[in-house]
Design brief:
Rossmann fold; 2 domains
Length: 166
């Protein structure tokens, strides 16, 4: 599995941990600044996307979780095994990533979320057993909503932003 936490706003760091728990060998892409963080999460190999072209260093990947979308998602198609799968998360670019995948005869799909109480219970159990670690980047009050939104829009949030009404 390959994941890129650059703009995941917390999704990537959770995907990595769940994949490791499931027994996957995880490859991740990040700037040098985030290599230690990904290593702490269990990523087996990290590629610095700022200094290396990822498809030259990652081949025959079974599953890619594309958290960035757009050109990054399209480039990631080069890393897939012929029967591999790419799941793209950013809804604003999903159509172009899916179209590129179809043009290359690759299996690409947008994330689909369906309510599943059993899966949610399993995630809660992983968290309770300290197997799943939730990285909190910051907590904000309603009067700080603009600040939180601006931080989120930078695409460089490491973990989740919490909006607290208490």
């Amino acid at each position: 599995m390959c994941t890129d936490p650059r703009r995941c706003r917390g999704v990537g760091h959770l995907a990595v941990q769940i994949a490791k728990w499931a027994g996957a060998h995880v490859l991740g892409t990040a700037s040098m600044h985030n290599h230690e963080f990904l290593g702490d999460l269990g990523v087996d190999r990290v590629i610095d996307y700022q200094h290396k072209r990822v498809p030259e260093h990652a081949k025959d990947i079974d599953l890619i979780i594309d958290c960035v979308g757009g050109e990054s998602g399209i480039e990631a198609l080069e890393c897939l095994k012929p029967d591999g799968r790419l799941v793209t998360l950013p809804s604003v670019t999903k159509d172009i990533v899916i179209a590129a995948g179809q043009a290359q005869n690759r299996h690409v799909e947008a994330i689909r979320v369906m309510p599943d109480a059993a899966q949610l219970e399993q995630i809660v159990a992983l968290y309770a057993d300290d197997i799943l670690r939730l990285q909190i980047n910051g907590s904000y009050q309603p009067d700080q909503l603009e600040e939180a939104f601006e931080l989120s829009a930078t695409g460089h949030v490491c973990g989740k932003l919490i909006l607290s009404f208490a």
